[in-house]
Amino acid sequence: MPATDRYSARGRFLAVTCLAGLSLLAGCEKKQAAAAPPPPKVGVITIHTQPVLRTTSLPGRTASVMTAPIIPQVSGVILKRLFVEGSDVKAGQQLYQIDPAPYQATYDSAIATLKHDEAALVADRAQAARYKPLAAAQAVSQQSYDNAVAAVKEDEANIASAKAAIETARINLQYTKVLAPISGTIGASAVTPGALVTADQSTSLATITTLNPIYVDVNESSTTWLRLKQEKDSGQLETTPDGSVKVTLTLEDGSTYSQTGKLQFSEVNVNESTGTVLVRALFPNPQHLLLPGMYVHAKIDEGMNKDGILVPQQAVSRNTRGDAVVLVVNSKNIVSQKVITIGRNIGSDWVVTGGLKAGEKVIVDGLMNATPGQPVSPTDETAKYAVNGAA
């Protein structure tokens, strides 16, 4: 065969071989395209607003409404103790008896002085009355009459002073009966009969504490307090008809206190060192279960957020900065990540305070299969999670 014919046949063979190779490559690409996996399936819920009770749980301590240390107002020896330690006492009830003998003697002496001054007044008035016409007739000197009138006025002053002395002696005699200034529970006695006490001493004889009702003091951050005030003023939070704010307690052992309290007031100044505001609640305490100084957790019902948003806890994770994040699906079924702010939990849901709005679709199932920027095949599972309030 001529050389030209051999080269021509080889060219045709190579061309056919290349075409066959290209056909095979195109077939492989079609097979690979046909074998690409479909978008992963995920379960989503559609967010919408609903009424959510806004509460805040804060640690605090109980404090007595009234506390009265018993301080003697006169000096003397204690003769009797007239109460049982740890018992309830009433205002005005006698607690101790201080020896009244010296005060009784002072009182009796003041009365005797008064009677002496009253007798002197009678005599001096009579003398002044006799001297008046005699002085007019110049039968006695004017000086004698003036002295008689001055003696009457002096007697009147002495009587006033004696009456004041009697009142002072009566008060001191009454103070020998040490009375309860308030009603409440009295603690241990610091003295026993026979002990010498002094007026206005620094050490109290005992202390009375009012236990029913009782205060619970908590400290709330000023930023939270400011946000709540703004939400209430704008109408986002609805309070009770009477405007009161209810408070419930969890005790140190984890049990719930049976009585419900009400918020009394908040401090008007912010603590500069802690950035908190003192909030005080008043609780009934008929069984004296709460004692001053106990550590408790108070849950404050701050109001109803009529446009609240809840999301299942399993849908929320944390990014590297510690922010709460969720995965959302847009109208083109593309996944994106959103940073949200969350508050307390209600059951298995988080209360969302920012970052989400009604109508958005949040992934709750298949989170491991969802990648931001990639498409997914969402299935609406709103009804499934409606039990927890997420829908």
Automatic annotation (TrEMBL):
Highest taxon of the lineage: Bacteria
UniProt-recorded Gene Ontology molecular function terms: transmembrane transporter activity
The Multidrug resistance protein MdtA-like barrel-sandwich hybrid domain, residue ranges: 67-209
Cellular compartments annotated: Cell envelope
Multidrug resistance protein MdtA-like C-terminal permuted SH3 domain sequence ranges: 309-367
Gene Ontology BP, a term: response to antibiotic
Residue ranges of every copy of the Multidrug resistance protein MdtA-like alpha-helical hairpin domain listed in the record: 106-176
Xref: Pfam families: Beta-barrel_RND, BSH_RND, HH_MFP_RND, RND-MFP_C
Multidrug resistance protein MdtA-like beta-barrel domain span: 213-303
PROSITE patterns, alphabetized: PROKAR_LIPOPROTEIN
NCBIfam families to which the protein is assigned, alphabetical: RND_mfp
Family, similarity comment: Belongs to the membrane fusion protein (MFP) (TC 8.A.1) family.
Record protein name field: Multidrug resistance efflux pump acriflavin resistance protein
